[in-house]
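DM from R.C. (forwarded with permission)

"hey, sorry to bug you on a friday — could you get me a structure for this? deadline for the figure draft is monday and I only need the backbone to look sensible"
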Amino acid sequence: MIRLRDLSKSYRMGSTTVRALDGVTLEVEAGEALAILGHSGSGKSTLLQLVGGLDTPTSGEVEVNHRIISSLSEDDLAEYRRVSVGFVFQDFYLQPHLDTVENVELPLKLNRVPRRERRERANVALQQVGLADRGTHRPKELSGGERQRVCIARAIVHGPSILLADEPTGNLDSGTSGEIVDLFLSLWREKAVTVLIVTHNSDVARRIGKSVSLRDGRIIDGGADAPE
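My reply, with the result:
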């Protein structure tokens, strides 16, 4: 379960203070899928970074599975990210000098998983995202949709309980975007992970089902429909 309590985040930009989040309170049940909808600058990516332990709040709390992660040390936050969270980003962040399998193996390498087991688990993850035949290809040899599938395989390979995606369809055409959303929903159902997807696309949010909308760092709307 994820609980955000009166969560705020401010940044200094020169002499100006920017309030990215302003008193957000939100609860996400374990195993739930949620879309976080909003325009650029609404605070949605900041919220995702705080849940993922990539940043710390100015005030308020982030609680994940009865643990206040916003109060953890840097070492404990790093362990939380390595073990509990899988990240998917709009810009892929694949290593160009590594092939597909090697890119997917990276989280396991950080967790010091033996090489043979890393390779086996990476190949299983690639099969789950429909890329079993692309293991030896490098990122430049893949389409945008295939690169995002590699990113999703990398995000799930270590068996996280939370999957966080920041605009995962932002660089894709509408047809490929639909396929990626289908994949997220399939993984959500099969693996019982908690999925948070940040998007500015109302069609993506509708497909996910349950959503909250942010504007100027505040929640302005929420719903609880079932995914398609």
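R.C.: lifesaver. Helices lie at 44-51, 74-84, 100-110, 115-128, 144-156, 174-191, 202-208.
me: no worries. The longest helix spans residues 174-191.
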